[in-house]
Amino acid sequence: MSAIPHEVAHLAGEDFFSAPVRTGASISPDGTRIAYLAQWRERLNVWVESVDSDEEAHCVTTDDNRSVHAYHWTDDPRWLLYEQDGDGDENWHLYRVDLENPDAEAVDLTPFPGAKIIGFEPQVRRPGKAILSLNRRKLTEFDLFGLDIATGDLTMLAENPGQVAGWLCTPDGELYTHTWTLDGDIELARWEAGTGTLCPVITFDGADYPLGVQPFQLTPDGTGAWIGSNRDSDLTRLARLDLVTGEETPVDSHPFFDLDTRSAVSPSLPSPLIRDRRTGELLGGHYLGERQVIHPLDPHFGAVLENLEKLSDGDLSTLSSDVSGQRWVVAFTHHRDPGVTYYYDHSTGESRLPFRPYPHLGPEVLAPMTPITVLARDGLALLSYLTLPTGAEPAGLPLVHGGPWYRDGWGSTPWCGYWPTAATRCFRSTSAARPVTARHSSRRASGSWPGRCTTASSTRSTGPSGRGTRTGTGSRSSAAPTVATPAWSASPSPPTSSPRPSTSAASPPSSPSCARCRSSLSRT
């Protein structure tokens, strides 16, 4: 087949793998300021700028040794917190900066050599307070602490008896633990503070939850927890767990998609639960198939979501709002406009585009990504993503990206942006063995991680849309998807944009359904 005449953009690798110009934006609780990550002395640091004025943004963290990737607003507009390790040792400390005194040095709130914090969480009903786990006593055991953000005082709430893998603290101070049993199951237990004993509440089958139960977040009243459950189902859905009886009550589900639990292995991705910043109540949930779907669970948020989704044809990724729920800063996952970020005021309808993280990478440079489904040798359908060069004859073999601990998704990545510029196809397979895929896939792949279930021997695929096969004109068919042979080397390129799935499920998709990763540099 003759080559298609087209000038393909050839960019240097640095154009795809360099740090973003800006990224990780969020709005302050009072809605007056926006924080984001941008370079200062060739390292990512936290910058803050005003929402309503043209005042120049200023850098508030000034770390010229290591880039900052995680920060937290507090309910007091004076304080901002961020996390940093020492020279890459992954011993994360929590630092506080004073936004009212920019010249003051950052204060290390956890100044314990060799220790690290995990599970930092502000307490919604106790302003100025937070809880965190810290291994300052023994490196292999994380104790639970309460933190006074203004004073820096740390108070031990519970000492780990040795087997506790995680802690929960209700607004009333009741404690619950996660532990792994000898059989590999997960036990939720109530902690008796007086005796230090554990009273079991419920046990989850570890084969169904190889990475733990995700999400697992307390309800605001402290009597239950919102969890990702696949009890009696192949799909992960949202349920409420009663902390006294252990009973599950369905809250929300998608008929074909799983609750998006990828943040369990990549904290740079958003939680599957969208919660009210002021009350902690549930606003919505992220579901993931070939593309993302957000289910609104609150009328006000439903109205906000309808307008937010008009800002881009990408998938909403990170969202933050002020305490009134009127002012929002959101970022989108997109295959040709990665991380594009918007400000939106629901009270006025105003919206604006503060920045693109990679202004040099846009639709004129990046090739489109198409969701497809391939069949493994055992007949299991594997949701995958194919990126072909734009307007040029594809050359070379597909490049398989990803590992058994991660579920790939639609959206630009450095590799999938770089290879198509060299007229090379990029193919990412979402392995059946990945724990954040459907429950039966994880069970079926147990014991077969190295290769048998992850090798695709068939090159059959369904259409790229999440709701049926796509015709050559890019229209969406309402018919059930069919299996066909993909024309991976055919001349027409895939459509420039896959449609965002509807928030209402109408028809099925085409397939059944590390350590601390803090990279903000991955394309969102």
UniProtKB/TrEMBL annotation:
Region (Disordered): 431-524
Domain of life: Bacteria
Comp. bias regions, Low complexity: 454-464, 472-491, 499-524
Name used for this protein in its record: Dipeptidyl aminopeptidase/acylaminoacyl peptidase
Gene3D superfamilies found in the cross-reference section: TolB, C-terminal domain
Entry's Gene Ontology molecular function annotations: aminopeptidase activity
Keyword hit for Hydrolase: yes
UniProt KW keywords: Aminopeptidase, Hydrolase, Protease
